[in-house]
Fold this protein.
Amino acid sequence: MKHKHLLVGLLLLAAAMALVACGTPSPTAEATPCPEAPPCPDCPEAPACPDCPECPEPEVALVPFEEEWANSPHNDAEAEAFTHWDEDDPAEIPPNCAKCHSTPGYIAFMGADGSEFGVIEGPAPIGTTVECAACHNEATLDHDSVVFPSGLELTDMGDQARCMECHQGRSSKVTVDENIAEAVGEDLDTVSEDLGFINIHYYAAGATRYGTEVKGGYEYDGLEYDPRFDHVEGYQSCINCHDMHTLELKLEECAVCHEGVASVEDVKAIRFVGSLNDYNGNGNVEESIMAEMAGLQELLYQNIRAYAAEVAGSPIVYDSHAYPYFFIDTNADGEAGEDEANYGNQYASWTGRLLQAAYNYQVSQKDPGAYAHGGKYIIQLLYDSIADLNDQVASPVDMTPLHREDPGHFAASGEPWRHWDEDGEVSASCSKCHSAEGLPTFLTTGGDTYPQPVASGLNCASCHDDLTTFTQYPSEEVEFPSGAVVTFEDPTANLCLNCHQGRQSGPGVEARIVSSGAADDEVSASLSFSNPHYFAAGATLFGTEVQGAYEFTGQSYNGRFMHVQGFQACIECHDTHELKVKVDQCGTCHGISSEEELHDIRMTDVDFDGDGDTSTGIAVEVMNVNDAILDAIYVYAAEVAGTPIVFESHSYPYWFVDTNGDGVADPDEAQYANQYNAWTPRLLRAAYNYTWALKDPGSYAHNGLYMLQVLYDTLQDIGGDVSSMTRPAVAQ
């Protein structure tokens, strides 16, 4: 206890002392200064970086064909095609231009950005060209069909479809017709302020190339036009002939067939051997197709200016470098002065007819490769526009020396080539002679025929098995419809005989008659007209050896007509490609200088047709006897067969019921449904031979005396008067 009390006491004493201390102020302490900081030590020098081990340069993926594309017109960033909108406000490319003048626009049109195909919803930014991504994306991989401004669609186009989307133009025949119909209806020669020039746009190579299949040009109603220009196999599309990145022509490949071609200028000078007509009428058939087109352009422009001044009442002038190209020729000097070739002075006195012609003139100008893409189509457009304006101007262009079409083998717009357009292919029974590939197929398969693509006429490969040496397919002998087999001394000419032989024969007609069981003057429902077909010159030439015509029992006939040495076969008398008769060589013996004078040739003084005139040519004798047969047929059909008949050479099957008995094939009569149906054997024989003579317009030269023998017997059999006529003697 004692210690405890001591501890408490001490604690109380300490507390008291503390209270005393708190009550007494303490003296102020003096601040101690901070010690001076020692200087920072110098940093040691950083050690050098160790040498890096040798590494390869980083790999950068190369863009295929980038250099070729970079130097092409598709990447010409300074070109008007890509800078036209740079100064606009806002500076953007409108949707209707964006597809072809920018990469974003093309991608949007193709739907490669996830948008709807064929639709560009808004403007595209400026500053791009046609870049890699435009053509190389998932959407373009399977793109192979193209709709043109006419609304017509081409399918199965392959990779060239990408090209065609832009190189198709912006207008068509349909566009022009719609504008005219809305503004003036059918009145083509009245000026309308609602009409303005319609521009096809630039580089419309696809429209030129495919011709009437897409109707890029203004095609006049009632006329036929060339479809796609059919080049040789392997050179049928844009990218067959042009490098797809540089866009340049593959000149080395052109030179394989077109000898001497080493530049684009050389290409412009090409003239195909199937294009031997004088299209622009200047007498020069050696100038290029491009030059032929230029001549027709001059003639059309002449008519455009004349029509504008005389009919529209306002002179017109053209400037290819100033939009919208046609201007008022204020001083009527025919030159587009600087004060005239401006937008404010654009031509304003348009009629429908003037617009049609001006549109075609522009179509011919704006595809600089038109001569190669589809020169014949352009020639047809120019020719038809000249002819259309001719009817309205005081001093029309003389069309006499001009030509619209190629020679027959290459006349692509003609019925022999266009007949199957709606079918989509040429049938096996017709393909040998009416397609580009039919004859070589027939010759190389031993006589087989198959359906073939619709063609634009024959081409080089139709007859030539090698397009570098131009050797021809061998054809040692030729079988005719009668079953007869013949050959020329020079097998080269046999190629012609494969097609120019007709489709029927005299024995074939007789077999049908026998099969009917009908007597000569008995109408038989099982009989119908047998068409010998066209230009059966080979059968006429070989006469009774092949029996193309119907030969009457008990009569003898001439065989092959043997002309003088050197003029015995087709290609000795006709130019192989132009098909025209070699008149200059005929003149050596016959003293003629034109094809018309061929009809005057006569080597005998016998009066075969009985008209008392032996000064006319054999051609006239053949025609007169054939005319007499037609008259006799008309009489026989009405009096014996009991149904009047009428003939129309331009409507198949040519022989129709003459419902009103006037001897004229009226439009409502010359219809397939009204074909003649009261055939007797005698009437069929006569109609067959009449048609044969008519369908071989050169029969007088190919074998005139044989033809007269056949026609004399035909006229006699059908009941015509032959009392004054003379049947040619049979050659010994």
User: Anything to note?
Assistant: The chain is about 35% helix and 5% strand. The longest helix spans residues 289-312.
